[in-house]
Amino acid sequence: MKVRDALRFVYDKQKKMFILGGIISLLDWDQKTYMPRKASTDRALQISLLSKSLHQLMVSDDLWKNIEFLTREKNVEKLSEEDRIVVERLRRDVEKARKIPTDFIERMSKAEATSYSAWEVAKKRSRFDIFCPHLERIVELKREYCGYINLEGHIYNNLLDDYEEGMRYERLKPAFEYLGDKLSRLLNKLESEKKIDLKLSKKAQERLSFTILKYLGLKRDRFRMDLSEHPFTTRLSTFDVRITTRYVKDKPLSSLFSTMHEAGHAIYELNLPKGRFRYTVISDAPSLGLHESQSRFWENIIGRNYSFWKFFYPILKRIEPALKTSVEEIYRYVNSVERSLIRTEADEVSYNLHIILRFEIETELLNGEIEVKDLPEIWNEKMEKFLGVKPKSDREGILQDMHWSTGDFGYFPSYTIGNVYSAQQFYAMRDFIDDLDAKIEHGDFKEILQWLSENIHRFGRIYTSEELMRRCCGEGLNPRIFIRYIESKYLDI
Known about the structure:
The protein has helices at residues 3-33, 40-59, 61-70, 73-76, 81-97, 102-125, 128-149, 157-163, 169-190, 202-215, 254-270, 288-302, 306-319, 327-334, 351-367, 375-387, 413-430, 436-441, 446-455, 465-473, 479-490, and strands at residues 223-227, 233-237, 240-245. It has 493 residues and is mainly alpha-helical. The chain folds into two domains: 3-150; 155-493, Neurolysin, domain 3. A three-stranded mixed β-sheet has the order 1-3-2. A hairpin with a 2-residue loop joins strand 2 and strand 3 (240-245). Helix 2 (40-59) runs antiparallel to helix 6 (102-125), helix 3 (61-70) crosses helix 5 (81-97) and helix 13 packs across helix 14. The radius of gyration is 23 Å and the shape is globular. The termini are far apart.
């Protein structure tokens, strides 16, 4: 076997996996946007079959044989820097994937597809009992998965590592405890619900959403935006990113923030490494936490910034000429601090308390400390503990998120990690961009986009998230920086 031939084989396999993954993403996107509800059973079979095929490609003996050949010391020396990076990263991914039986992938993907459809019905009817048996099956499968991966330490590490490579429960727990204590105190101090007299039609909300996407540099020939129950972003191919939002009648600016959030994800996806890395494992984010930092950066750090509203207020005024609320009132309104029941509608101060609640439930479920059937009551108790409010229905309580229906245990911490990372990036960015506030006030985001591209996007998975944060911010995850950001902003409002 020659190095040249082995490299060609490895790159060809990755391209096939990239394309197949895009097809699966397309089916998933369709299920969450336009698919007829009655098609859910067949869609589960379709996704299950393709997921099985993708896993078989990943764990094939031929691929492993070529990877092993290329990573021998004498052959590594013959690789270019780019090829070495690809092969070493691919080896780590394949080693992990080969621990998981193909029949498990098939069972898991089928369970996730049917579970999501059950969750949709359960949420609509506000009946956890409809979703309960599906979630019990998901939890059972996740425990089985943890047994295959078998990382050291807490069982939760096996799931957390899928989303935050290298991050561990043992490190995250004290960080979350620190945030929980600080944010609970700040919530008590800063709670101040503010209302404004603002009504926006669906058409007006749509115009606002597409206007901000234009200012953020998203080109219509590389993305599309649709509606879904739960906004999300997915990449189907290098130049095909799909985002969704939703228009809420009694929360007229909610869609703007959802759109900015998903735009952050889309910008990242479209700026991932191309060229030699285009169809490889490098053309991806190193973690969901870093990905989430991009969405939270645009939604909160920029979108709830006073300079941003000095820029965007005239645009809002043009779309809604009857608007009488001042820019100062809008700014205070979008930074209201209150005890929200719904995570996606929570403010910057209380949001992470929602995540810590879910983190506790996930770890307790995996440990066998609690049972799925008791979750509605447990959820309500923890909501009172962390946020001082109690849901009146399953819809606004245990059923509000889709994540568990799609098997995404270990995902929720990424939101808080992303919040912390975004604050760290904002402070680091200030040292490099002159007159940052003035640029935001004029709707000039070019240097911000450039900084993010040069310091984060272009590296893909060459580095882990923590390594990348140390490169651009001087340190890894630091929750104290986030608290500094919250205090410096909200104590002045």
